[in-house]
Amino acid sequence: MNSTRLTRWLVYLLIGAAIAAVLWSYSSAPTAQNDIPISQLAQEIQANEVAELIVAGNGRDVTVIYATNDRQPARATVSSVSSIEEVLATYGVTSENYSDDKPVITYERPSPWGNGGVLNLVGIFLPVLLIAGFFYFIFRQAQGTNNQAMSFGKSRARMFTGDHPTVGFGDVAGCDEAKEELEEIVEFLKEPEKFVSFGARIPKGVLLVGSPGTGKTLLAKAVSGEAGVPFFSIAGSEFVEMFVGVGASRVRDLFEQAKRNSPCIIFIDEIDAVGRQRGAGLGGSHDEREQTLNQILVEMDGFDTDTHVIILAATNRPDILDPALLRPGRFDRRVVIDRPDVRGREAIFRVHLRGKPVANVVDVNVLAKATPGFVGADIENTVNEAALLAARRNRKNIGMSEFQEAIERVQLGPERKSRIMSREEKELTAYHEAGHAMVSHYLPHAQTLRKVTIIPRGMAGGVTWYLDEDSSFMTRSKFEAIIATALGGRVAEELVFGEITTGASNDLQQVTRLARAMVTQYGMSTEMGLRVYGEKQELVFLGREISEQRDYSDAVAEQIDAEVRRIIDSAHQLATEILTRERDKLNMISQRLLEVETLEAEEFIALMEGKDVPTPPPSGAPKINLPKPTEAGDRPRPTLDLPPSPSPA
Q1: Per UniProt, where does Zn(2+) bind (predicted)?
Q2: Binding site residues for ATP, as ranges?
Q3: Any idea what the CATH number is for the domain that residue 87 is in?
Q4: Which one of 303, 402, 541, 565 has the minimum C-beta count within 10 Å?
Q5: What is the pLDDT of residues 508-523, one digit of tens each?
């Protein structure tokens, strides 16, 4: 309990005690039903009707006790400083009237808590104190509100001193080049003389650029833990408020704190929230966000070379940042944190597996190869899901089966085994997924199959998994193979059931998107030539593509549609040829899926080649199969036969 709360409770306690004391005083005072004058008291004494006189400690209040029980006590008040005997004597009461000890006069000991004492003063001043306390409380509340208003323009950055670092560079993996860049920043803060001796100037700002989940904020935390200097952290959205001038005021306050604590680091997370290009705001060219950005530009450019204050900022939208923010002298260095490759993913897995009970059969290299496209956040979530599954299954350690299930949960969601499917739906799903798998098996440039299942997962009724390659380039042959594979499910439905369903809706979306991209973006159509059709237009303030400029004629649009249809129709024809020729194997794979519901890559290849199906591995053993792609000469090579394009209209 802090001192403010303790003081408040003490005040409340004292007020309560004063009120209780006053109430006790009035409740404990002798009860007197009526007041009588001294003259009447003298007459009653002379008539022997009074048994006792009780004189209060103040000498003025007298309680009259009568001889008979049928009369209630009365009260009389002595108005002079004389004793009660002297006052009564003036009214004719003599010593003879006190014979037989009637009335007996009793004097009470004076007490500060009696009538006329401190309690009377409390009773007088307590209302005044209560009223004064009420106004004091209102004043304090108003003062607190005023302080909040006065501090509205103060920076909300959180400062970390690095005394107890929780994250270091050892906890960051998969981005070695980015770590080297930031390690140099940390080294400059620790040993600036090493760089100054060569006449070098440390970059004033470092912009961390990368997709969501790649570890930009984690790297900033690592810098905070390694640098050993004050580290100010704030989000870009914390600068701007609805009140004019607040954002700029907070920027000034933040940089003033940084200068006082130099050397230090300022980290602005999601800087695109405040650093977007000026002049595109919906509120005009002079909105609050632009004022905040202008102040950031002034503060960054106004740094002295000796301040040793470095700015770190993170964003996943560098394309929408203001050019003035990115120029040398502000953000001198741009560090790109890309999605990790297979070696990076393996290193990230090892970081997140520290301190966890992992089975000896778990191969981190296999896990890395089974998660292409995963970023650090995905891998951390995968490891956590595997640990939760192992605990749920009461295992002693985390096995390969838990990791496989975790990877699939992260990609598509948990299995929906409770979903009731009719025999017809299961059979339709089995042929659909078998069609995908078989077409990819016979195409040399198709993706490598990993697993096929008819167990509903996420929003999908069945899933055919493939292993993506860590490649930054896609060839025309790969695109054609992907399109043909995606159409394999629809073709299997047509051949077997003579009917089509809505199950291929997502496949058709993927096919249309890829075919149109081949024609309009990648220049993979000989008919349409080497150019891009349809330039994307962006609203910088909104930060997303919401329109596309049509920079071609209606006749060219018809050619594009015809070319897209020709690519899709040719891929559909290729898939039809493969599944028609291999109809027996299509039936075999489908029936096998109906029996076991899931086929791993090794089982599928063994069935296609007529070999014995391998027995399932024991619980906890590796189940993520990574088959090597079949050599080009080991399987047929059907190609897409693109018919000649019609002449332009």
Answers
A1: 432, 436, 507
A2: 210-217
A3: 3.30.720.210
A4: 565
A5: 999 999 999 999 999 9
| DSSP line for 380-430 | HHHHHHHHHHHHHTT-SSB-HHHHHHHHHHHHH--B-TT----HHHHHHHH
**Same domain assignment for residues 319 and 356:** no
Helix boundaries (H) for 59-215? 84-89, 118-150, 176-190, 192-196
What is d(CA 389, CA 401) in angstroms, rounded to the nearest whole number? 10
Q: Is 480 a catalytic residue?
A: no
Question: The domain containing residue 375 runs over which residues?
Answer: 342-412
| Other residues' Cβ atoms within 10 Å of the Cβ of residue 247 | 24
Long-range contacts formed by 249-255: CB under 8 A, 24+ apart:
249/152, 249/153, 249/154, 250/153, 250/154, 250/155, 250/156, 250/292, 251/155, 251/292, 251/295, 251/296, 251/299, 252/295, 252/299, 253/153, 253/154, 253/155, 254/155, 254/157, 255/299, 255/309
Catalytic residue (choose from 226, 405, 433, 603) = 433
* Binding-site residue set for Zn(2+): 432, 436, 507
Q: Is the dihedral of CA 628, 634, 635, 636 positive or negative?
A: positive
pLDDT in tens, 121-159: 666 666 777 777 767 766 666 555 445 444 545 655 666
State the pLDDT at residue 305: 55
Same structural domain, 313 and 192 = yes
Residue 647 within a domain: no
Judge whether 557 lies within some domain. yes
Angle (nearest 5°) at CA 582 between 580 and 584 = 105
Say yes or no: 395 and 431 in one domain. Answer: no
Query: Measured between alpha carbons, how far apart are the two ends of the chain, in Å?
Result: 84
Residue after which a domain boundary falls, among 58, 90, 107: 107
Examine the domain organization and report whether 564 and 440 are in the same domain.
yes
Q: Looking at the structure, tell me whether residues 72 and 97 fall in a common domain.
A: yes
Answer whether residue 543 is part of any domain.
no
In contact, 573 and 639? CB cutoff 8 Å: no
Note whether 174 and 191 are same-domain residues.
yes
CATH of residue 479: 1.20.58.760
Q: How far is CA 565 from CA 416, 482, 545, 639, in A?
A: 36, 15, 26, 17
Report pLDDT digits (tens) over 324-365: 888 888 888 888 888 898 899 999 999 999 989 999 889 999
Q: Please report how many Cα atoms fall inside a 13 Å half-sphere around the Cα of residue 319, on the Cβ side.
A: 9
Annotated binding residues, written as ranges, equal 210-217, 432, 436, 507
Establish if 126 belongs to a structural domain. no
Same domain for 470 and 581: yes
The two three-digit tokens of residue 350, written as one number: 């090892």
Q: Are residues 321 and 347 in the same domain?
A: no
Domain count, the chain: 4
